[in-house]
């Protein structure tokens, strides 16, 4: 009995050892599986956390980029609008928007315009004029320009007329009176429409410095200080009278009566002539008597 027990004991121990070994192996495999599963879970969790972090990072980066772009675009738009507002630029667009910068130069100038009066006379009009030693024998009088209590005309104003000749020798006369101020006349011109380049009035701009080719007449003995003369510049009352062109002009400020400055020129009956002149007048305060007639006669 004792022998069996002593004999059987190693087998039991062996079986027990084998069973224990198998159990240990199974436990070891189970532990390995648990470790693998834990490792996989950790790995999976790490990757998941990584992807979440990446996603959150990308999302935050996108939001930050959007904020930066919005701020940049807003700043650019504000700067553009401020620039346009500062420069006074107004733009209108339909399908597209463009910004342009332009520089304009504004020039301010002061100019004085002259008055041009044109009158066409087809037949000689008979006018009544005062008969005196200067006008004796004048007939067929045509008055081109006329004024009484004449206003200030400054600077020189241009007047032009068309006249049809009724004789072969025609007279032009400047009949003037200015008790307070002074008249200034320059560039008296008569030209045929058939030959517009030929001037028929001699010394028409008074560039000889005197009244050569003209006839001056003062029938009433009117006072003529500084009148009925040729000047290159004259301070009359408040204005400085000057030539329209050239160096001289005719000045008349005769007081009390009219005086006359005349010249004759050759004409062809029935032919048209352009008659023109430049006139200015310093009338002062217009308190004195004044009159002006530019006329043609035969």
UniProtKB/TrEMBL annotation:
Keywords, in A-Z order: Membrane, Transmembrane, Transmembrane helix
* Keyword Transmembrane included in the entry's annotation: yes
Q: Where is this region: Disordered?
A: 90-121
> Which source organism?
Adineta steineri
> Which residue ranges does UniProt annotate as crossing the membrane?
50-73
Q: What is the lineage of its organism?
A: Eukaryota, Metazoa, Spiralia, Gnathifera, Rotifera
- This protein is called Uncharacterized protein
């Amino acid at each position: 009995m004792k022998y069996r027990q002593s004999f059987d004991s190693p087998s039991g121990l062996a079986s027990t050892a084998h069973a224990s070994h198998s159990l240990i192996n199974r436990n070891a495999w189970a532990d390995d599986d648990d470790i693998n599963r834990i490792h996989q879970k950790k790995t999976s969790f790490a990757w998941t956390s990584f992807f979440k972090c990446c996603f959150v990072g990308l999302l935050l980066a996108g939001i930050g980029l959007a904020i930066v772009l919005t701020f940049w675009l807003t700043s650019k738009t504000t700067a553009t609008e401020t620039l346009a507002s500062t420069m006074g630029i107004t733009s209108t667009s339909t399908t597209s928007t463009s910004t342009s910068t332009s520089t304009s130069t504004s020039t301010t100038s002061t100019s004085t315009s002259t008055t041009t009066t044109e009158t066409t006379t087809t037949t000689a009009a008979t006018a009544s004029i005062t008969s005196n030693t200067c006008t004796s024998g004048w007939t067929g009088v045509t008055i081109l320009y006329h004024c009484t209590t004449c206003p200030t005309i400054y600077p020189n104003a241009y007047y032009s007329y068309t006249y049809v000749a009724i004789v072969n020798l025609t007279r032009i006369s400047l009949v003037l009176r200015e008790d307070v101020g002074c008249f200034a006349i320059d560039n008296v011109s008569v030209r045929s429409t058939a030959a517009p380049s030929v001037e028929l009035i001699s010394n028409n701009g008074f560039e000889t410095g005197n009244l050569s080719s003209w006839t001056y007449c003062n029938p009433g003995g009117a006072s003529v200080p500084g009148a009925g003369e040729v000047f290159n510049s004259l301070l009359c009352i408040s204005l400085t009278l000057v030539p329209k062109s050239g160096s001289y002009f005719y000045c008349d400020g005769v007081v009390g009566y009219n005086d006359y400055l005349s010249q004759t020129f050759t004409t062809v009956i029935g032919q048209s002539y352009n008659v023109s002149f430049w006139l200015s007048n310093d009338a002062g305060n217009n308190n004195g008597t004044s009159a002006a007639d530019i006329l043609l006669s035969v």
